[in-house]
Amino acid sequence: MTDVIATNQTILVVGGGISGMTAALEAAECGKNVVLVEKNAALGGRVSQLYRYFPKLCHPVCGLEINQRRLKQNPRIRVLTMAEVTEITGGEGDYTATVKLAPRYVNENCTACGECGKAVDAEVPDAFNYNLSKVKAAYLPHKMAYPQRYVIDPSIIGTADADKAKAACKYGAVDLDMKEESVQFKAGAVIWATGWKPYDAAKIQPYGYDRFSNVITSVEFERLADIHGPTKGKILRPSDGKEARNIAFIQCAGSRDENHLRHCSRICCMASLKQTNYVREAYGDEGKSTIYYIDIRAIDRFEDFYQKVQKDKTVTFIKSKVAKAVQDEKTGDVVLHGVNTEGYHRYATPHDLVVLAVGMEPSVMAANLPAEIVSDSSGFIEADPSNHAFFGAGCASNPLDVNRAVQSATASALRAIQVVNRVARVEG
Amino acid sequence: MSENYRNNFLKEVEERVEEGHWVKMCMQCGVCAGSCPLGAHWAHPPQELFMMIRAGKREEVLTSDSMWMCTSCYNCVVRCPRKLPITHIMHGLANLAYRLGLSPKNQTTQKFASMFWNNLAQTGRVNELKLSLGMYFKDGFGQGIKNAMAMQSVGLGMVKAKRLNPMELFGGHGIKDKSGFHAMLKKAREIEDRRKNFA
Asked: By the number of CB atoms within 10 A of the CB, which of A226, A274, B117, B119 ranks highest?
């Protein structure tokens, strides 16, 4: 049985991505007790799935490592993974949260030695790589996983594979009898850092994401470029494994569109500008990136990054929302059709690979959170007084880049601290 | 009345074109132009027309044959990220151009549209025989005979299947209260003229 010790002066943080980790750490480092609840088996969220950050093009592992070190050192944070909040009752300063814990089938004896992974035969789609590859059914979520503990996929429970994993473990860490459990604890304030998910590209019918193998999303492209990804960092296209040197990026794939997401997702322009650097990094002057855009929104101070990419001779900008994509069955090339607004010229241009710069939507619509929360028309959490001590952080509150998500998380930590400080004064 | 709109074509379009108030919402993404199945045959795709309207190019827009090329497939309306009713705006523009006498002469779609309306407005029913013959002979008698010969088997087939009555050529059938119908059209025209500043 999992015990969680918490009081009305505890801050509950829902979601363990970069925003949730930041909010939890900032609050804990101010001396508050925090429970951090994460649905997946490891912290880090979508940031851990990025190859590089913009604008400095450094690797996310660096920032994650700093945060993980802070976490390890801080006794005030209780981390619950594979945990989902199912209900929150009560009011400001006196909430009761119910959290469902899914069985990991691996206990804290795990040393991440990897013997169980070697022992099992079954493979499951690797969610960390957006299902572009497979992993063994006993796996470490990813290299930087926190906690560093293996997970056994529920699909092999009750099969011979599960027994093999148990037999292979020298530390008695595999526990096949784990059951789902539910815990309840108190909290004074709740920070919702439930994050974002990429818009379902298959819904953008004319681009054929569901029909054409060489039309992929920007988040999948991050995995292709990453050395820990399914192609070991080589930019190979899915249809035939050929090196994709001529790559098209389609902006506003789902964003700024009344038929899809009404809002501008803010990060996609910078993400594509950044990804042209991956192409340059892989192929030098031999690579070719083409960005199809309505207008480039290099938000805030990132205009200089945009100007730098504009100077790159391998990058072409075409002011046009692509009307249609068609994949040539024989060559595997994807032909993009549309009209260039600059001169109104009609084009039909083939590319090796097409990357859809998909928009951000809340991973959980605020209306579907297990609590009464005011949201905007896109489902992001509003900063509204009627939310009482529920605070949105990071991409649960707005489409944000990592930098701004961290700022938003710090702000939400401060608001939560104010609430529990008031509770402390009343309780004495 | 057009004096009121001197140097402000966008305002004229907003007030005198059906759904014209949507034109300013266009963000020039170009998805309409790219999605149009006949797009390659237009002088100016919708996106360009909208920009020309905003740029005040009144003559060029109204004398253009572009909006007459619209076949109402609604591909653009379905894909427009700002939900502009592009098809309706195209018909609205065509209508304004026609009313101002600026639409291109001998443009087939325009010929057909006015023929259809005149045909319908007479009896309250479309006389299909007269309408199709009118289209055959629109480019002169000789060409008309040629067209009719080419379509002969289709025509005879329709007669055989009782889809076409040759007797319709002599008057044809209509609705019951024709004078009421004409009064109604006249009233509608008055209302429209007032609304669109033609009165």
From this structure: A274
